[in-house]
Write a structure and sequence with these properties.
Aminopeptidase, alpha+beta, single chain, about 40% helix, 6-stranded mixed sheet
Length: about 300
Amino acid sequence: MAPRREAPRPQQRQSRQRIAVRLLAAGLGVAAGVLLVGALWPESDRAVREEALPSAASLAELPSRPITVLLIGSDADRRGAVRNDAAPPGPANSDALLLVQVDPNAPLQVLSLPIETPVTLPGDKKPVALGSLYRRGGPALVAGATAELVGLPKGQPDRYLVLPRSALRELVDGLGRVEISPDRSMKYSDKAQKLTIQLEGGLQLLGGRQMEHLLRFRDKERGEEGRRERQQMAVESVLRQMGQRQQLQQLPDLLGRLQNQVDTNLTQSEALSLLAAALQPSQPVRFRSLPVDPAARTQPWPN
């Protein structure tokens, strides 16, 4: 016959009851704390969710038709500078020329225009380099020559933008530096220009001054062709940085700061509209380069 268990003593029952009450109170306290935190600090407010951040389409209303913009990279340091402070010294030149078509219903098209492309102006007996036209007649002369070279319809390009070196630096620094991956190291020094370029190859973050050096570097082997490849790399990197949702909300302020540093017939609202179309994530950029040799220009642009 099994031994009988003794009934718990009053002191033991009271002790167990106190432990149970404490555990219940602790559980209720945790539950109440979670509910209170949830009420005061809802989950949706703890961090800015990606869907709450602006998208490219929220920048402005998209353009109603394709818009063509002539982008002129000036070797002058600042807007309106009479001289280029470069080599060889003299009036400001166009160091880079890009024709950009922004279509709200198609990928962004970028055509690189070699500055060494020969063009013959009315009244001239000999051809001159396309890059030299900016100092002779400003954006209007460059736009006219470009339209004839590419075969643009009358009235195009619709807009122009002259970007001096200081505006380029402001743009890149305003984006918080830009991720880019040069395929080689670049070293150059010129005391006359007070210019020292020292960049390493590989993936890295570049500030405005470093980006300027990347685009100014010209080596003996690849010359202007190598610079055009780096221009394409820079355009892709800047657009990728602009398209990040954390950056989109800062673009209106950044464009406002740049408005007085560039020469353009674009208003800020027009610029935002073009960016809204250009930065759509489903639209990759299509790059082409105008052949220097006229005989090789077989396809119209854009296509």
